[in-house]
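Forum > Structural Biology > Help requests

Title: Can anyone predict the 3D structure of Exodeoxyribonuclease III Xth?

Hi all, first post here. I have the sequence for Exodeoxyribonuclease III Xth but no way to get a structure on my laptop. I'd be grateful if someone could post the structure tokens.
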Amino acid sequence: MRLVTWNVNSLRVRLPRVLEFLAEHRPDVLCLQETKTDAAAFPHAELAAAGYVAADHSGGRWAGVAIVARTELGVADPAVGLPGEPAQDESRWIEATVGGELRVASVYVPNGRELESEWYAAKLEFLDAMARRVGELRGDDAGAPLPLVVAGDMNVAPSDLDVYDPAVFATSTHTSAAERTALRAVEQAGLLDAYRQLHPDDVGYTWWDYRQGHFHRGLGLRIDLILASPDLAERLTRVGIERDYRKGSRPSDHVPLVADWT
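Reply #1:
Sure, ran it for you. Structure tokens for Exodeoxyribonuclease III Xth below:
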């Protein structure tokens, strides 16, 4: 199984790159964030022509998430919106069952903007809601739970190893103690960071600011994560960051993160 997460920062703009990626890497599942499209404009036809089907939670110019899967696997029982999230209209969470045997959620956590702001408080609320939902999905009230992946743009760098210069972010979002604690609570509800399972000490960024040549200078953050239930994490064979998709024509500021397991 190959699962990918990618904040495309506008699916309309990035669709040629997405179709290129699907043709080159043939993932079983692709989780998208910041699709920035209306539901009526979501490119179902183009994806179908490439051999994929999608469930989307589209919200127009901002946010938007989707789960794309190979047509033969299908995307079943989709649920949009995160119970308890502070802004129900922002299209930041979608979950569905793929291939009848894997529950997948694609998530775009709010940025938070500024410490001690209302947006920062809403970000922490969102992460708390994520932890509760993961706990529900990993619970055994309905019998053995399906294997679970929560993948997307978390807008939190889990540790200082995931930041090019922690001092630069000392008074800003993405690295604060409260954000990291809230993200750890999501993991403690029943998930493991796939990248860190295979690369415990490696520096691997998934986002670089468009400004000031940050990509070419290596000034990035690891904020895109694949969080997998332990039954999947123990079967991981590769977790890779596809840096080439930050190059070329009209790239997103994020790159695809790929996980393979047996």
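The helical segments are 11-25, 44-49, 118-138, 177-188, 194-198, 214-217, 230-233. Residues 2-261 form a domain with the Deoxyribonuclease I; Chain A fold (CATH 3.60.10.10).
Shout if anything looks off.
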